[in-house]
Design brief:
heterodimer; A: 220 residues; alpha/beta; Rossmann fold; Arc Repressor Mutant, subunit A; 2 domains; five-stranded parallel β-sheet; 12 strands; B: 367 residues; alpha+beta; Heat Shock Protein 90; disordered N terminus
């Protein structure tokens, strides 16, 4: 049974989330502010954290930074703020994904499942996302069992997206991993290669979805 | 001869106040000389010299350099002529009187000079001080403005939080109830409408506060359209969306989030005015370094003469369906202008409303 920690200052929200999560078999603990949240995280060792960004006192970003000093527990950001910069800041400080309030329960549960799964990947040299297979050992890709011809940059790009399949990856995270400061205008190069990848993946492969101002998500 | 008046080049005129100072200086020397003349038998000629020096020092504290120097020269000559023996000549007999005269002349001149210089420095200091005060006041005002901007934003954030939280709670609770209950479905519809209204109000405030700074980055038009249509896919489901002109479009450097929001508002509008089942068309084109997007529906079109009013805040067409805030198009225009573009509307010659977005863009062909 998975343990979930809810850090949110709205009591009603915590109560509802508890009901939703418990009905899906989660064991739930909760905290109304960041300080208590960090203590609860240390004490209960949850499998996943739902963190509200707009906390009183220590704000959500600060909580996240402190948590990341000693824990790599998957963190899902809950926020009513729809400003992209805040989301990007959270993601680049170690959050795994976000949902914007108001959110649908189905969306919330799907995100939780995806970010928890991340712990169990990386046990083999192969990444599988639906019909897409990446062989990290031989740097080969295949789609529906047919080989997929990719340039080294395209392969590196697709690898980053596939490792985070179903999760958002910020533009900066992608650029850092694929280009590592080589390109003069990496944002432009990124779009060009995403464009190529989309054409190669066609309609049968997983879709690369853009979230404006944030980054990309490989949708299964 | 052309009727032109060219100002005569001239030396800076002597200010009126200074003319007054010259005549007061002469009068003062005359009055003091007469007094000392009367007192000469009792005091001797050195007394007159000291009185003149005092007058020059006093004059130096109030008057300009010119009149003070004039006083120094005139009083030296007067002293020589009337007081130093032999009287009534500029000739001096005794060597010590010669020395005294020279000393008087030098002291008087340097006094006048030094004192006026001191005053000039004081004036400069005062001006410097004033300028500093002015700068400080300016800085203070800028800080106040920044602070009020920050407060405004904080307030907006907290209002956003307060308004959206209950909506989020209702949404989550309704998901828990399930959509089978028809009453729950009604609440859900109303709640989504409320959410839209709240978001529009917040966005309008943001647009008007000019806190909005577009952040252009390379993007694909397809991504913009995806972001525009996704939040309103339920509303769009009743219409067929036809998109043309986007297939071979190069990369565009724009704030894709803002443009998506503009398009979303236009599309949402179209779904409300055009009858279900009709087509909504989006046509994209690039010309002269600008992106042109046309959004056309097959509804009743626009009321003649209202094409501009549409974009005013809270404008609602007389025959528009209930449930709008009259903000969607005002926001769209605000966002377009923030991006240095614009938007206009007209009724298409073959019927239906057509909105045209015009946005200057940098492009790059994605080879």
């Amino acid at each position: 049974m998975s343990k979930a920690l809810i850090i949110d200052d709205e009591q009603q929200m915590r109560r509802l989330l508890r009901m939703v999560l418990e009905s899906r078999g989660y064991e739930v603990c909760e905290a109304a502010d960041g300080q208590v949240g960090l203590q609860e995280a240390a004490f209960h060792r949850p499998d996943v954290v739902l963190l509200d960004l707009g906390l009183p006192g220590m704000n959500g970003i600060e909580v996240l930074k402190r948590l990341r000093e000693w824990s790599d527990v998957p963190v899902l950001i809950l926020s009513v703020r729809d400003q992209e910069t805040i989301k990007v800041e959270a993601l680049e400080n170690g959050a795994d994904d976000y949902v914007t309030k108001p959110f649908g329960t189905a969306e919330l549960l799907a995100r939780l499942t995806v970010i928890q799964r991340r712990r169990f990947t990386r046990q083999s040299a192969e990444i599988v996302v639906d019909a897409l297979k990446l062989d990290l050992l031989h740097h080969e890709a295949s789609l529906n069992e047919a080989p997929l011809k990719l340039t080294p940059t395209e392969f590196a790009l697709l690898k980053v997206l596939a490792e985070h399949a179903g999760r958002i990856v910020t533009q900066n995270q992608i650029i850092r991993q694929v280009w590592a400061g080589q390109a003069s205008d990496p944002s432009e190069g990124l779009r060009v290669h995403i464009n190529h990848l989309r054409k190669k993946l066609g309609d049968t492969g997983p879709r690369i979805v853009n979230e404006p101002g944030i980054g990309y998500r490989l949708e299964e | 001869m052309p009727n032109t008046v060219s100002p005569k080049p001239s030396a800076p005129p002597v200010p009126l106040a200074e003319v007054g100072q010259y005549s007061w200086g002469l009068t003062l020397v005359f009055v003091l000389a007469s007094t000392c003349w009367v007192l000469l038998p009792y005091t001797g000629d050195m007394f007159a010299a000291l009185v003149f020096l005092m007058a020059i020092v006093l004059a130096g504290t109030r008057w300009n350099r010119g009149p003070v120097l004039m006083m120094a020269v005139v009083s030296a000559l007067v002293w020589n002529y009337f007081f130093i023996p032999p009287q009534f000549t500029l000739h001096i007999d005794k060597p010590q009187d010669m020395v005294m005269f020279s000393l008087f002349f030098i002291v008087a001149l340097s006094m006048g000079h030094l004192i006026t210089r001191l005053r000039a420095r004081e004036a400069a200091l005062a001006q410097h001080h004033q300028e500093r005060e002015h700068l400080l006041a300016e800085k203070h005002r800028a800080e106040l403005l920044a602070e009020s901007e920050r407060l405004h934003r904080t307030l907006l954030d907290s209002v956003a939080h307060e308004l959206k939280t209950p909506i989020a709670i209702i949404r989550t609770a309704l998901d828990g109830l399930g959509q089978e209950n028809p009453y729950a479905r009604e609440i859900d519809t109303a709640n989504r409408r409320l959410q839209r209204i709240v978001e529009n109000f917040l966005e309008m405030t943001r647009v008007e506060s000019e806190a909005l700074e577009p952040q252009p980055d390379w993007c694909e038009i397809g991504d913009v359209l995806h972001a525009a249509t996704k939040p309103i896919q339920n509303e769009l489901a009743a219409h067929a969306l036809r998109i043309t002109g986007t297939a071979d479009m190069p990369l565009l450097k724009i704030d894709s989030r803002l443009l998506a929001q503009v398009l979303g508002n236009l599309l949402h509008n179209a779904t409300r005015y055009a009858p279900a089942g009709t087509e909504i068309e989006i046509h994209a084109a690039l010309a002269d370094g600008a992106l042109e997007l046309r959004v056309r529906d097959h509804g009743p079109g626009l009321r003649l003469g209202a094409e501009d009013q549409l974009f005013e805040k809270f404008y609602r067409a007389p025959d528009s369906p209930a449930g709008g805030t009259g903000l969607g198009l005002a926001i769209a225009r605000g966002l377009m202008r923030a991006m240095k573009g614009d938007i206009e509307a007209h009724t298409h010659p073959e019927g239906g409303a057509e909105f045209v977005l015009h946005l200057p863009v940098k492009t790059r062909t994605a080879a």
